[in-house]
């Protein structure tokens, strides 16, 4: 296993349960022995997919002990007002916010405790020869170059995966990388008074603005970890906002309540590095039975649907299931895994890019709110016969592509209902509503 991040550690646990001997190599130092890398990570929103995977590994309760519930979005409006948008229609439709380092520590400890699992940190993969029956890997370590042989190599080494690059070398492979022309910086927001809605510790906080966006996740200690997104270049961008006066003016204009919540926001802004956001689509995801990719290594997405970690965890349980069905043919298992996951993660990439526009531009729109409220109302009336897209993505394990297809059918039906209501054709609207269940199921 190359990469001791979230998906690498979870997959190590699942493989160890199968009786495999697993060696995990990580180019960075052990995160448990130093402070977390502030400024380079976004808090994670754990949804149904991720929780299902952690439950399968027996780790969900331990992770939830480090998490804070998010029952909906608190929207900080440009005029200083607040809005609230629940995530669902029932009490169990909530997300959980967890610090990346806390989650990684739980997974590292769990994997390290498994028989047959060994971790080696500060070991950077520099070359891989996949042509032999036993894959040869070269790692740069403090003690020099190490040669490691393995029957199978799993690349969980992120969006800029060395395993992927080495696996595709000399092969007819597709690779597409797209950077968002926006970057991000992290902000720390201290816990507010218990009754302060502006720092509600059980909600995701969103500041939509013209040419800017802030998203803040709650932490278990009631503080918030905020992320400010701005263009990388041009007017009012990370490139041009270099002075106290410029930063203070922009934040006061676009996020009017931020100075009161974060008195040192300008100092934090100027001291933090800029992070970048990338989408990766690639194929193939595996080479015979010798190499396979997980998570961001094969499908990095923008963070705006909160599904990057969740989809990576879903990769792990899907691959584990494919190995169950093909215990003696790992090449077939890897091929089945790619066939199941790639169409869905391609859809997720599109949804994640679209949700950036929604968070930035539409949250304060009356039309958007009316459409969202109609979706939730129909869900309350019809139950599982009408499920909003966000609910299917975040609160179920419906494959992403299936969720999008069903959502499009529902949108068509809702447009017909709206048309019937607009023309006063009550009878037609009633007929449509009675037949709604059949239509949204595609009949």
Automatic annotation (TrEMBL):
It comes from the Bacteria. The chain crosses the membrane at residues 414-433. Keywords: FAD, Flavoprotein, Membrane, Monooxygenase, NADP, Oxidoreductase, Transmembrane, Transmembrane helix. This is FAD-dependent monooxygenase. SUPFAM superfamilies: FAD/NAD(P)-binding domain. GO terms for molecular function: monooxygenase activity. The keyword Transmembrane applies. Its cofactor is FAD. InterPro entries: FAD-bd (IPR002938), FAD/NAD-bd_sf (IPR036188). It comes from Actinokineospora xionganensis. It holds the Pfam family FAD_binding_3. The keyword Flavoprotein applies. Residues 2-319 form the FAD-binding domain. The lineage of its organism: Bacteria, Bacillati, Actinomycetota, Actinomycetes, Pseudonocardiales.
């Amino acid at each position: 296993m190359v990469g001791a991040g979230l998906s690498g550690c979870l997959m190590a646990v699942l493989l160890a349960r199968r009786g495999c001997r697993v060696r995990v190599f990580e180019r960075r130092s052990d995160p448990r022995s130093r402070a977390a890398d502030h400024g380079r990570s976004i808090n994670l929103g754990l949804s149904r997919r991720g929780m299902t995977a952690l439950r399968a590994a027996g780790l969900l309760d331990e992770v939830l002990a480090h998490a804070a519930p998010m029952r909906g979005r608190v929207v900080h409006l440009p005029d200083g007002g607040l809005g609230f948008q629940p995530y669902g229609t029932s009490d169990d439709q909530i997300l959980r916010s967890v610090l990346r380092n806390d989650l990684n520590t739980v997974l590292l400890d769990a994997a390290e405790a498994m028989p047959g699992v060994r971790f080696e940190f500060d070991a950077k993969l520099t070359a891989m020869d996949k042509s032999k029956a036993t894959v040869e890997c070269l790692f740069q370590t403090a003690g020099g170059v190490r040669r490691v042989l393995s029957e199978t190599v799993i690349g969980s080494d992120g969006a800029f995966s060395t395993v992927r690059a080495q696996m595709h070398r000399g092969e007819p492979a597709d690779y597409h990388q797209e950077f968002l022309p926006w970057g991000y910086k992290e902000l720390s927001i201290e816990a507010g008074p218990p009754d302060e809605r502006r720092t509600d510790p059980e909600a995701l906080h969103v500041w939509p603005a013209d040419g800017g966006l802030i998203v803040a996740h709650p932490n278990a200690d009631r503080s918030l970890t905020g992320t400010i997104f701005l263009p990388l270049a041009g007017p009012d961008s990370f490139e041009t906002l270099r002075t106290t006066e410029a930063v203070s003016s922009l934040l006061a204009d676009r996020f009017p309540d931020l100075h009161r919540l974060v008195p040192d926001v300008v100092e934090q802004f100027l001291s933090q590095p800029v992070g970048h956001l990338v989408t990766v689509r690639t194929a193939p995801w595996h080479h015979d039975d010798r190499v396979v990719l997980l998570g961001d290594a094969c499908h990095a997405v923008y963070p705006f649907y909160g599904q990057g970690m969740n989809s990576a965890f879903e990769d792990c349980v899907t691959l584990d299931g494919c190995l169950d069905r093909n215990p003696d043919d790992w090449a077939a298992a890897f091929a089945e895994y790619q066939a199941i996951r790639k169409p869905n993660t391609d859809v997720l990439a599109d949804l994640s890019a679209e949700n950036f526009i929604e968070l930035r531009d539409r949250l304060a729109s009356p039309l958007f709110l009316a459409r969202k409220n109609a979706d939730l109302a129909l869900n309350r009336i019809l139950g599982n016969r009408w499920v909003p897209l966000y609910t299917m993505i975040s609160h179920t394990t419906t494959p992403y592509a299936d969720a999008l297809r069903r959502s499009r059918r529902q949108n068509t039906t809702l447009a017909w209902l709206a048309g019937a209501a607009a023309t006063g054709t009550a009878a037609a609207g009633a007929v449509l509503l009675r037949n709604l269940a059949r239509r949204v199921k595609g009949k």
